[in-house]
Amino acid sequence: MSEVVRDGRLLNGQQTRQRVLHAAIVCVVRDGYAAASTVRIAEAAGVSRGALMHHFQSREALVAAAVEHLAQRRGAELARRGQDLPTGPGRVAAALDLLWDSFSGDLFKATVELWTAARTDPGLRARVDEAERRIGRGQIELFGELLGPDNTRRPDFEERVQFAVGAMRGLAVLDSFHIDPQARARQWDFHRSQLVEMFTSNTDGADR
C-alpha cells in the first residue's frame, strides 16, 4: 500500500509505517498518551488516518510497537557505540555510562508514559507487557555484549542485569521531575560505583 503524504511524495508501506512509528513517539512524549489519538498521530506523520489504521489496528498496538521499534533502534546504536569502549578495568564503568544514556531520551519518556497509562487500561497493559518482555531480552543481550564474557558466564547474570536496569530506571524517573543536573550527576556517580562493584567482583562466574 502506497500513501501520498502532505509534501506530495509517494511513500511505500514500510516508509509509511516508519513515519507513523516515529510520530507516535513524538506525540506520546509531547502530549501524553491520553492526548495521543490516532488522528493526532496521523497528522504528525503527515499521512491519512486510514493509512495508519492499515498498519495498526488500534492505538494500543501502535504505541507499544513504536516503543519497541525505538528500543531496537536505540539498542543497535548503543551496540555500535560499544565497539569503541575501552578494554581492561575501565570497560565496565564506560559501558554503564553508555547504557545510562539510554535512560535520558524519548524512549524512556515514552515508556514511563505508557507504564502510567497501562495501570488502568487492561488493553494497553497487555500490549506493553508483551513489548516489555521482548525489550527485556534485548537489554540482557546488549548488557552482555557491552560488559563482556566475564559477566555473561555468571550463573546470575540476568538477575544482575535486571537489578542494574531497575536502578537506572529509578534514577531516571527522578530525573523526569527535573531534579538539579548536578545532583543527578552525583547520584549516577554513586549508582555507577555500586554497579561497577557488582559487575567486577567475582568475575570467574562462581557463586560466593
TrEMBL record:
A molecular function GO annotation: DNA binding
Keyword line: DNA-binding, Transcription, Transcription regulation
Signal peptide: none
Residue ranges annotated for the HTH tetR-type domain, each copy included: 14-74
Keyword Transcription regulation annotated: yes
Keyword Transcription on entry: yes
DNA-binding feature ranges: 37-56
Any Pfam family the entry gives: TetR_N
Protein name, UniProt field: TetR family transcriptional regulator
Annotated organism of origin: Mycolicibacterium moriokaense
Lineage: Bacteria, Bacillati, Actinomycetota, Actinomycetes, Mycobacteriales
